[in-house]
Amino acid sequence: MKSYFIMNFLSKFIFFLKKPKIIIVAGKGKSDVVEVIYQAFKEKMGIEKMDFSFGSFLKENLFIVEQNQLNSQYLPGLIKNSELPILVINHVGEIPLESGFFAGDIEDVQEAIKLARLMPAHGFLVVNFDDDTVREIKIKSPAHAFTLGFQEGADLRASDVKLNTGTNFKVNYKGKMVPVWLEKLFGKEKIYNALTTFGVGIILGLNLIEVSQALKFYQDSETLS
């Protein structure tokens, strides 16, 4: 037991010393968002899922974690001591089949709002533009806001969706457009997950083509079974 607490303390100390980049994911479907970002960037950027292991902090400089997987008392310190903190807030409302805006219960994002307010000015807030409840959180944070969705006005927008043996669509960003192919994956939520990965990738310095290629590794539990 004593050795566990020593290692735990050393892990936190190394984190605060190295100040690695950290991605915290909140909102509905956060486990899926963590998984797609992890799959896409594991090889290219050496991303790891945060578990406070001593060895991982010695080797890695980029971590991803679900909001509820860490004791909430640790999160302010992680955000404050990260070289580049990124807070992803996925949708909280039910995604409609038809195109358009939607909304969720504000009570479902209270913890995410607290984190957004803690974000420093050099951090980034990645939010679902189509979810009215989530979109409004960006005005509560000093961090740079990066929005994504299907609707006009989003920084990063999906269009031209076509379904066959998977999902084809185009990503539009600052006048540039790239095609995306999600093999054996269907549904708007999968597209939102891919858009989130594009947003995080751009913040980390990747271009659209690099992220599109990285998403070829994206498979969920259904396609893996």
Count of all domains: 1
* CATH homologous superfamily heading: Mur-like, catalytic domain
What's the CATH class label? Alpha Beta
Q: What's the CATH topology label?
A: UDP-N-acetylmuramoyl-L-alanine:D-glutamate ligase
- DSSP strand content: 15-25%
Number of helical regions: 9
Multimeric organization: single chain
Low-confidence stretches: 1-7
Largest sheet, in brief, is: 9 strands, mixed
- Determine the structural class based on helices, strands and strand pairing: alpha/beta
Could you give the order of strands across the largest sheet?
2-3-1-4-5-6-7-8-9
What level of helicity do the residues show? 25-40%
What would your notes on this structure say?
The protein is of the alpha/beta class. It has a single domain, classed as 3-Layer(aba) Sandwich (UDP-N-acetylmuramoyl-L-alanine:D-glutamate ligase), CATH 3.40.1190. It is built from 9 helices and 9 strands. The chain has a 9-stranded mixed sheet, with helices on both faces. Strand 8 and strand 9 form a beta hairpin. It starts with a helix and ends with a helix.
For this entry, give a set of tags.
UDP-N-acetylmuramoyl-L-alanine:D-glutamate ligase, 225 residues, 9-stranded mixed sheet, alpha/beta, single chain, disordered N terminus
Give the structure's gist in a few sentences.
The chain is 38% helix and 24% strand.
What does the secondary structure layout of this molecule look like, with pairings?
Blueprint: H1 2-18, E1 21-26, H2 30-45, E2 48-49, H3 54-59, E3 62-66, H4 75-80, E4 85-89, H5 110-118, E5 124-128, H6 132-135, E6 144-149, E7 156-163, E8 166-173, E9 176-183, H7 188-203, H8 208-214, H9 221-224
Parallel strand pairs: 1-3, 1-4, 2-3, 4-5, 5-6, 6-7
Antiparallel strand pairs: 7-8, 8-9
Helix pairs in contact: 2-7, 7-8
